[in-house]
Amino acid sequence: MRSPCVAHCGLNDEDYCMGCFRHIEEIVGWSSASDERKQQIIDALPERKAKFNGEANTQKLGRDKWLATEARLKS
Fold first, then answer.
1. What is the pLDDT of residues 44-73, one digit of tens each?
2. Cα distances (angstroms) measured from residue 51 to each of 5, 21, 27, 40
3. How far apart (Å, rounded) are the C-alpha atoms in residues 30 and 1?
4. Best exposed site among 18, 19, 58, 64 by fewest CB in 10 Å?
5. Three-state DSSP state, 16
6. How many of the other CB atoms lie within 10 Å of CB of 24?
7. Residues 6+ apart with CB under 8 A from 27
8. How far is Cα 47 from Cα 10, in angstroms, rounded to an integer?
9. Which residues contact 69 (CB under 8 A, 6 or more apart)?
10. 41 vs 24: CA distance, rounded Å
11. Hey, where are the domains in the chain?
C-alpha cells in the first residue's frame, strides 16, 4: 500500500504531520504496519485534515525525533 506522504513534513504540537496528517508514530511505523492498519490510518486522514485545517507546523520532523520515536515503538 502506498504511503500518503506528500513530502511536506512538519509536525504540530501534538506530533501530527501537517503535510499528510499522520501521527509521528504512524509515519515511523508505516513500513512495518499491516495493510489493515495502513488502511485504518488512511481512512482517518480526511477527518484529521479537517480538524487541523489552518494549523501550522511548529517543529520539523528531524532525524533525532524520528530515531527517538523508532526506539519507543520497538520497546
1. 999 999 998 877 777 777 888 888 888 988
2. 18, 10, 19, 17
3. 10
4. 64
5. strand
6. 21
7. 5, 17, 20, 61
8. 18
9. 24, 25, 28
10. 12
11. 1-75
Burial of 55-67, coded b for 16+ CB within 10 Å and e otherwise, reads: eebeeebeeeeee
Query: d(Cα 49, Cα 34) in Å, to the nearest integer?
Result: 23
pTM of the complete model: 0.83
CA-closest candidate to residue 4, choices 29, 27, 35: 27
